[in-house]
Design brief:
Chains A, B: One of its GO terms (molecular function) is molybdenum ion binding. Chains A, B: InterPro entries: Ig_E-set, MoCF_OxRdtse_dimer, Mopterin_OxRdtase_euk, OxRdtase_Mopterin-bd_dom, OxRdtase_Mopterin-bd_sf. The structure is a homodimer of 423-residue chains. The first copy, chain A, is mainly beta and 423 residues long. Chain A folds into 2 domains: 232 residues, Alpha-Beta Complex (Sulfite Oxidase, Chain A, domain 2), CATH 3.90.420.10; 119 residues, Immunoglobulin-like (Sandwich), CATH 2.60.40. Chain A contains 7 helices and 23 strands. In chain A, the strands form 6 sheets. A 6-stranded mixed beta sheet of chain A has the order 1-5-4-13-8-9. In chain A, strands 6, 7, 10, 11 and 12 form a 5-stranded antiparallel beta sheet that branches. A 4-stranded antiparallel beta sheet of chain A has the order 14-16-20-19. At the A-B interface, helix 5, strand 17 and strand 18 of A face helix 5, strand 17 and strand 18 of B.
Chain lengths: 423, 423
């Protein structure tokens, strides 16, 4: 496939191939330029690379829109320090399946951050990002898992400002409409970062082209988060936002967009972020990756953020139980139920706040819910579960998988003591 | 909204309002013209109206495409006897929310069956229909439910031939493109049948316009099933096929298509086919309908079709356990697991056969799966569960709801005796 090329058009100037990223040894990783970070809001799981999730009570009390200071941080290498004015995004189409990171036969176009912000209209999309490894700790209790042992805090919600990927693709790619129509059904959009990671040459992922081109899919290239320019920790200068999908597909430090007939071959698409069957472990994972589909849309999830396990609540009187719920693919949260007896009986929560995107009508942002219960006894086991608009709900018990992803078992909180005045 | 009108265009001739359907008393229902039906393949749940599901072993052994003689039959009234050549479908757009069955301010267009079959290209879509009440018997065991006590056989798969609804709407509705673009995000398509039912004036439902207009949504108006003209039991002369949705939305005997800003007000949209919360029963259902969303996409489902509970298998040697699995919204079945010990340990099934639509890539048709197990002991509890492409799986135990819909708990088969040669 060729692009028509107009040399006077700075937003579509023909470019050389994007810079190749050499895979670095762990010892070559340069962590000397990490941004300074206030840490009080976070439980830090790793420093190099930096991985941290907010304390659950802070997260839910921060409200529907998570301020950047409370937004979970997930990295696979040092934070790149990219010069905003010099950053170029490379865009291409491959005729044949791509197996590596270099595609010599692709005719690349590039655009700068300035191009992005001036050439196309920007939109605001409120969308939650959730790491596929959210609640991995629940599976680690069943059996050893591979990955950062996350709690239930690797989810946050922000308003992202950027340009629709479908707008850019329709404008820059001179693919005949009929051909694009066919491509939408089978092609993938490979997304690669301008960074270095421990597992591969750079961070990469892909999404189906159908998701990128869906006018109601709301995939954008975002340069702002909650009205501020993206911080380095959150992908400056540019990250993809793929609403309704696991966070791993919302690639930060975006440098390369390649339409190709196959999924990305990046480690993060083919050797990670898959629900391996429960009979697969470290011994036989190598033989299972290829036959296990990669993750896209999230499943239905629900977490109690407050009170937390083993906590003590001071004072008698009603206790406010709060949490979040979300589903993938734009499916809304239709009900949240709470149990105080370990799941034997259930009651509705008092309120669920979830707002669909005003233009697409899709539920990309989480639901925050709350229920006031008269009191909590030390013997109570508080359990929450949610239902989404497709009638899906959550499994009662964790279903272990080696990578510890997509754990959406009923969320349980035990051992909450409420100090009564007469105690 | 007005249609431009070309009187020479038979396919868009301006029509009077569609015939109003008077609600009949039960005593007025005429069941004297029911089609003759071979019954041996079916468990008949009701004769008037006729409701029957195939025996599970026959269903699964009939193969991926269910012949009409094995396809479940779900009705709410007598089967209409519609004259193919005289049948007209009415199509309109309403500016304001529609509260009843008559919309005097709508400018209707009509098309005949001949128009439909000659004016627009036809497509074949393989899609499974599943009644939302499938497996209601499992919830009826928990507590009394309202509805036909279906087993797990109200699902079948067929190849439907018809015209894409989006093709017809784009062609016949002279709605400016920009306006249609906006309407897609908020409008619904009300679908009404030319029939009489016990619960309302006629059968009706609606789907979001976004589903109807999605080129990958594959909603069609079908006049053929498995290569034969539709039979009366299956909706002759015309039924809507809404792949990925509960069967209730695939309206038979289609007579009226109305684009409107609100969901259908039909009984079957607002007082039926909703997952009422578990604390709602016959006493307080009236207050819960309006606050409970109507069903669209199906949840993830998995059923063991053979062997069946309490059966005796003759002969030693491996036993073939077979079943079906499906999810909604075009999500594929990514894994099916089988347990012989009531869900303590799980193994993969040997094979899962599911074919995405060759054009859209969506999984509208069920997966048939099979596993050979060495033997089955009388004490074994055989359990099956599935996972879909969004990582959703099924709840372990049935979650009761008053209408008994969308039961997708783990499917269990007990008390299977295998006669051994030495017994």
């Amino acid at each position: 496939m060729n692009f028509d090329h107009d040399p006077s058009d700075t937003a579509s100037r023909r470019a050389c191939s994007p810079p190749a990223h050499r895979r670095l040894a762990d010892s070559e990783m340069d962590y000397s330029q990490e941004p300074t970070r206030p840490l009080t809001n976070f439980i830090v799981r790793n420093h190099k690379p930096f991985n941290a999730e907010p304390h659950l009570d802070l997260l839910v009390n921060a409200g529907t829109i998570t301020p950047a200071d409370f937004f979970f941080k997930r990295n696979h290498g040092p934070i790149p320090n990219i010069h905003f004015d010099q950053h170029l995004v490379y865009l291409g189409v491959a005729d044949t399946p791509c197996n590596g990171h270099g595609q010599d036969n692709v005719q690349w176009k590039t655009f700068s951050m300035h191009d992005l912000m001036t050439r196309w209209p920007s939109v605001d999309i409120a969308a939650s990002l959730q790491c596929a490894g959210n609640r991995r700790d629940g599976l680690a209790k069943v059996k050893t898992v591979k990955g950062v042992i996350w709690g239930p805090g690797t989810i946050s919600n922000a308003v992202w400002t950027g340009v629709r990927l479908c707008t850019i693709l329709s404008d820059l790619l001179n693919v005949p409409k009929d051909l694009l129509h066919d491509m939408v059904r089978t092609y993938h959009v490979s997304l690669e970062a301008d960074d270095h990671v421990h597992e591969d040459c750079c961070y990469g992922s892909s999404i189906p082209l159908r998701k990128a081109m869906d006018p109601l899919g709301d995939v954008i290239l975002a340069y702002k988060m909650n009205g501020e320019m993206l911080s380095r920790d959150h992908g400056a200068p540019l990250r993809v936002i793929v609403p309704g999908y696991i966070g791993a597909r919302s690639v930060k430090y975006l440098q390369k967009i390649l339409l190709q007939p196959n999924e990305s071959r990046s480690f993060f698409q083919v050797r990670d972020y898959k629900i391996l069957p429960p009979w697969v472990n470290s011994d036989n994972a190598d033989s299972a990756w290829d036959s296990t589909p990669s993750l896209g849309e999230m499943n239905v999830q629900c977490v109690i953020c407050t009170p937390s396990e083993h906590c003590t609540i001071k004072g008698a009187g009603p206790v406010s139980v709060k949490g979040y719920a979300i589903s993938g693919g734009g499916r809304g949260i239709y009900r949240v139920e709470l149990s105080l007896d370990g799941g034997k009986t259930w009651e509705p929560v008092d309120k669920i706040e979830q707002t669909p995107d005003p233009k697409s009508g899709m539920y990309w942002a989480w639901a925050l819910w709350e229920k006031k219960v008269p009191r909590i006894r030390a013997s109570d086991e508080i359990v929450a579960r949610a239902y989404d608009s497709a009638g899906n709900t959550q499994p009662e018990m964790p279903i272990w998988n080696y990578r510890g992803v997509m754990n959406n078992a009923w969320f349980r909180v035990k051992d909450v003591a409420q100090l009564q005045p007469n105690m």
